[in-house]
Amino acid sequence: MASKPSIPKGTRDFSPSEVAKRQYIIQIIKSNFEKFGFQPIETPSFENSDTLMGKYGEEGDRLIFKILNSGDYLAKADATHLESKDSTKLTSSISEKALRYDLTVPFARYVVQHQNEIEFPFKRYQIQPVWRADRPQKGRFREFFQCDADVVGSKSLWQEVELVQLYDTVFTDLGLSGVIIKINNRKILSGIAEVIGASDKLIDFTVALDKLDKIGEDGVKKEMIEKGISLEAIVKVQPLFNFTGTISEKIDKLSDLLSTSADGMKGVEELRFICDNVLKLGLESAVLDLDVTLARGLNYYTGAIFEVAPPKSVAMGSIGGGGRYDDLTGIFGLKNMSGVGISFGLDRIYLVVEELNLFPETVTATTKALFINYGDKEAFYALQAIQKLRAAGIKVELYPENAKVVKQFQHADKRGIPFAVIIGEQEMESNVYSLKNLKTGEQISVDFEKLKSSL
Amino acid sequence: MASKPSIPKGTRDFSPSEVAKRQYIIQIIKSNFEKFGFQPIETPSFENSDTLMGKYGEEGDRLIFKILNSGDYLAKADATHLESKDSTKLTSSISEKALRYDLTVPFARYVVQHQNEIEFPFKRYQIQPVWRADRPQKGRFREFFQCDADVVGSKSLWQEVELVQLYDTVFTDLGLSGVIIKINNRKILSGIAEVIGASDKLIDFTVALDKLDKIGEDGVKKEMIEKGISLEAIVKVQPLFNFTGTISEKIDKLSDLLSTSADGMKGVEELRFICDNVLKLGLESAVLDLDVTLARGLNYYTGAIFEVAPPKSVAMGSIGGGGRYDDLTGIFGLKNMSGVGISFGLDRIYLVVEELNLFPETVTATTKALFINYGDKEAFYALQAIQKLRAAGIKVELYPENAKVVKQFQHADKRGIPFAVIIGEQEMESNVYSLKNLKTGEQISVDFEKLKSSL
After folding, report:
1. Can you tell me the mean pLDDT for A339-347?
2. Do the beta carbons of residue B53 and residue B64 sit within 8 Å?
3. Contact A91/A66 with Cβ under 8 angstroms?
4. Which residue, B419, B425, B424, B423, is CA-closest to B440?
5. B200 pLDDT band (50/70/90 cuts)?
6. Is the pLDDT of residue B300 over 80?
């Protein structure tokens, strides 16, 4: 191989400092998941194709990475599709497995498969990579981690309250003040459509409404009309185009607007319960916002819908999202299992924390001191100290070779190691260590106990 | 989907307690890797096929999971191979990516690709899953984690010394006393072959010698003769069939046996350096053993070879292995990069720790207390306490629904939650909490501070 090797597009290598920073975020998410009573599960990277296919729509099916059967896969290939060179139809006869596309469908599969071992309500979290054959672009990768927490087996709205708190504590722990937790409810959206007599155009309506920030009131109205929504209907929802006030005031407005829709009023009631309790219990650093344009995953969610926007100073899309889905496991034959969950967008959170310079310096701190290697006798002496320091939990290293001293110091410098320990003949004789602070250049002679306490 | 869903053979779901136990082992490995100065990297789950293919021999190539190209993959398929239904030859034209088979080849690729950003010697660790289309059997899976630590860019034998210490500290921390760290050297093996005049039969010789434990001296000799190794040659290495004594005595025997082989004597010298220093520095709980039958990865290693056997009380194969490879990155065009590394076998270590009952009880401890839900008013009151307890890092949960109290207690019991907190009208009025120990049944009335300190 003559040319430098590379990795597939849309994938990434993570350097030590990147791994450390990602782990820092994951650790904060994980510890909060556990504080809230969520338990970890892990599922295989690939699932049987029929577990995944048909769950994400046609576009989703296309974006699922399929694994070629092992061995003589053509022996079992469908002859007709092979002859007609029909890639789409051939796939199922030469590929039985596929890489997971998200963590929700595998979770639903897990719940159904293990329903007799699980104690419901089941609060699980899962932090694992997923794969999508999407066109790579800035911030969008073909392999990325999802961090999901879901509760399955209870319709209690206290869970929505706690999930908002969970977002708040995670982002507070990350030092990310002022994230906006947007909440809406699928029933509000269908209530609105019902009131305006355009239930069959619900998706068109919400997709248009969702663009309010981007294309403005006129643009949204224009799009709605183009989609066949009547002007009369649009006039009815005029309050939604200038939807301001406190959350409580907004809910009152919705209550007026949706008074004729049973579904809509159920949504108002749910929203009120969740928002009231969240606000009375209080958030640490996040801001709760009721956003009726929020319509993510419309086909999926049935109750609360969440989306988290980064602090206003950062221009970036959502860093989290989630909601309630009344029939999580129905696709695998287990009915009446309501689920509600949220997800953290690791890659974007990383970019936000980086942009705001919020990674603590200690995150990437690795080795505390490099022991300079003056030869085998000195190295052995050094390793005796190193062994004891490591046993005390201190990260120290011996430079492996008796290289030029200046090279060894350069190595410490490039690695960002703050101290060097020098042990030559003299130090060995007097049973001391020369400890050099590589930032200040200051060097002191210490005994082992002092060395240990200094590091 | 009517039938219960399942997962592909050779893969696993991990339940909360299994994840917790795996994480416990991984955390101990990780923290020791870092104490020894290794830094984490992560590489993509799939690599370009040409990065992986041809690196693991023909059998390895077959066991690599290939990913089908996205879109109309048949459009670019080789027509001849398609027509002749030649699966093996067709693969490269319909699949450009493959799941990684181990962590070593991706690491070599990483080093070459990022050589200008890396400060050598580079001590990296990597803990990620790998995939092999192997026939699943007890303890062998198609998806499993590897935990590798390698140093690249230095030939210093101090690294071998430290890697033995690293094995020792990890297994000591796991409470696994008496693991046997077997060491050998590839140069010893080739020296032996040279001395007996059967250099061309080195692999046959070592494969046979490796079976000494299984088929005995006679069996090994029989196999050697069948493979065309002369009786005269076998007589020359008679000392190897009863190779006892201290490590130092064994090395002396090898020194006699290999005195005419330059390669062999180099191996003796290396072994002596490593073993002498390891023994003088001392191991905490592991036992070092020189095992001349150890020949794993023969085509790969060029110096030290390591393998770790579990304590003698457990019947199980190796739980770790590694060695020195002088030309790690040559396959990707970067010459003269010596590497040395070790690997921990997570799945087998798990089984050993389980069998010896060494997982601390706290590992699977999750939620500390369940707050019983008596209705929305009480639940709100409970959440006020829960919020403060979580802020103090205590894992507590509210039962999400106002279900029958006996059902809520059963939930705590099944989940293994040790305490319940009861808040009814009475408690709310007197601003106290009833804390019930679910093991003893004892129930006390406490204020918030006492509640917090009790949990």
Report:
1. 96
2. yes
3. yes
4. B419
5. confident
6. no
Nearest Cα neighbor of B44 from A426, A20, A7 is A7
Q: What is d(CA A390, CA A371) in angstroms, rounded to the nearest whole number? A: 13
Contact B192, B262 (CB under 8 A): no
CB A119 within 8 A of CB B412: no
Q: Helix A346-355 vs helix A16-35: angle between axes, to the nearest 10 degrees?
A: 110
Domain boundary among B284, B309, B334: B309
Q: Mean pLDDT throughout B31-46?
A: 97
- Give the pairing type, strands A320-325 and A339-344: antiparallel
**Residue of B26, B28, B35, B367 to mutate, interface with A, max A Cβ within 10 Å:** B35
Phi, psi of A107 (to 5 degrees): -65, -45
Does the residue B417 lie in any domain? yes
How far is residue B61's CA from residue B59's CA, in Å, rounded to a whole number? 5
Task: Tokens 């006393």: give the residue.
Answer: B177
Partnered with residue B396 across adjacent β-strands are B369
Q: Residue B297's pLDDT is what?
A: 62
**Among candidates B241, B240, B242, B247, which has minimal Cα distance to B180?**
B247
Using 50, 70 and 90 to split pLDDT, how confident is the model at A246? very high
Which residues does residue B66 pair with via DSSP β-bridges, in sequence order?
Answer: B98
ipTM exceeding 0.90, yes/no: yes
Q: Does the CA dihedral B127-B128-B133-B135 come out positive or negative?
A: positive
Contacts of B390 in chain A (CB under 8 A): 35-36, 169
Bridge partners (DSSP) listed for residue A343: A148, A321
On whether both B277 and B392 belong to a single domain, the answer is no
Please, which pLDDT band fits residue B206 given cuts at 50, 70 and 90? confident
Taking an 8 Å cut-off on Cβ atoms, the answer to whether A158 and B65 are in contact is: no
Using the 3D structure, point to which of B264, B284, B309 is the last residue of a domain: B309
- The whole-chain average pLDDT of chain B stands at 93
Residue type, B144: F
CA nearest A412: which of A361, A367, A362? A367
A374 annotated to bind ligand: no
Work out the mean pLDDT of chain A and round it to a whole number.
93
Say if residue B1's pLDDT is above 60: no
Q: What is the pLDDT of residue A206?
A: 78
* Residue B243 confidence (pLDDT): 84
- Residue whose token pair is 């219990």: A281
In angstroms, rounded to a whole number, what is the distance separating the alpha carbons of residues A344 and A174? 13
* pTM > 0.90: yes
Burial of B156 (0-12, 13-18, 19+ CB in 10 A): buried
Return the minimum-mean-pLDDT range out of A265-269, A316-320, B353-357.
A316-320
| Residue listed under structure tokens 């002749």 | B84
Mark yes or no for CB contact A48/B6 under 8 Å. yes
Nearest to A67 among B39, B68, B96 (CB): B68
- Residue B254's domain comprises 180-309
Residue A392 is given by DSSP the state T
The verdict on residue B388 lying in a domain is yes
Contact A203, A189 (CB under 8 A): no
Q: Which residue of A has its CA nearest to B130?
A: A45
Q: Which residue of A has its CA nearest to B385?
A: A281
CATH number at residue B373: 3.40.50.800
- For position A210, what pLDDT does the model report? 78
Which amino acid, A350?
Y
Per DSSP (E only), the strands in A7-103 are 39-40, 46-48, 66-67, 97-99
Q: Is the pLDDT of residue A298 over 70?
A: no
**Token digits of residue B444:** 């006390």
Has residue A440 been placed in a domain? yes
Tell me: do A374 and A296 sit in the same domain. Answer: no
* Among candidate residues A381, A391, A448, A451, the one with its CA nearest the CA of residue A420: A451
Give the integer Cα–Cα distance in Å for B447 and B293. Answer: 67
